[in-house]
Amino acid sequence: MPTFDTVSADPEQSMDIKSFDPGNQTQAGPGQPLDAVATRNPGLELDLDWIRSVQANTSAIERRAASLPGRRTLKKEFQAAWLLNAVTCIDLTTLAGDDTPGRVRRLCAKAIQPVRPDILEALAMPSISVGAVCVYHDMIHAAVDALQGSGVGVAAVSAGFPAGLSPRGTRIREIHESVAAGAREIDVVISRRHVLTRNWRALHDEVRAFREACGDAHLKVILGTGELGSLRNVARASLVAMMGGADFIKTSTGKESVNATLPVSLVMVRALRSYLDRTGHKVGFKPAGGISKAKDALVYMTLMKEELDNRWLSPVLFRFGASSLLGDIERQLEHHVTGHYSADWRHPAG
């Protein structure tokens, strides 16, 4: 079985981690939604002194982010193990205007069996599945039916996605309806104007209202970082979202001109660490938009390990919002097994 390990370019800097075992990952099993295994973030009252004290050294952040791709080298069985873990952290997503129930059912079949059985057999690995399937509200019923009994949950984008400009009452009703339809995770998008005008009270109240509307469903708060203007705004918005009760903070809708980037992700991850240090509550992170290559997934996982710890290498606290990433990971795993790269069509999304 491959070892889920970090191998540094410098042998003296290598780090030991447990062997990768999907049965040992802190994720929901068959018939067990995420909310049965993950601790919720209750949030807290808005702390404006804390928010206003937050700064962001852009040049230092960009230097640190630029160093990440070259800091660690993952080869052979170590790379395969990390990529298998990445698969379990994918929110397999379809958010197209021409989505159909048939397309969603095919995607769900891929979510249940994301890696071809012959590849898993060659790696001496048991079956694995992705973290969740992410769809629009109208596709929830099709996804829930297709995933029945699999242990893979449905995440629904909501609250006026992607612009976040619908009336609040409409956005809250949309959340209620998505939860009633069977979504166990709700990805909401904030009103970016609250960040741009520094109306932190309005942002906190908005997220708190979304949290209450979710009930037992987990809340992922999309910041739309490409539209927030500065890394300082990203840091402050991250903290306010967590104070409002976000179980995950997410970079992007995937519809902005700039989506997930390493500098933005570094700022958000350090906000997670600050929140954990002050409150003791663990909040998850979901980079989304533009992450389509296996090598990029490895860099983001390295970020989580180095800035936080191994607990954030589990789908309970880390997800990729992606539609094409899985195909490239499967190609890399096949290359590890056979020594040859295969065509994309050998790894369809559904």
Describe the structure using short key phrases:
TIM Barrel; 9% strand; 350 residues; 13 helices; alpha/beta; disordered N terminus; globular; 8-stranded parallel beta sheet
Tell me what you see in this structure:
By secondary structure, the protein is of the alpha/beta class. It has one domain: Alpha-Beta Barrel (TIM Barrel). The chain has helices at 48-53, 58-71, 76-88, 101-112, 117-122, 140-147, 168-181, 192-196, 200-214, 231-243, 262-279, 294-307, 325-338, and strands at 90-93, 132-135, 153-158, 185-189, 218-222, 248-250, 284-286, 320-322. It has an eight-stranded parallel β-sheet with strand order 7-6-5-4-3-2-1-8.
Please write out the topology:
Layout: H1 48-53, H2 58-71, H3 76-88, E1 90-93, H4 101-112, H5 117-122, E2 132-135, H6 140-147, E3 153-158, H7 168-181, E4 185-189, H8 192-196, H9 200-214, E5 218-222, H10 231-243, E6 248-250, H11 262-279, E7 284-286, H12 294-307, E8 320-322, H13 325-338
Parallel strand pairs: 1-2, 1-8, 2-3, 3-4, 4-5, 5-6, 6-7
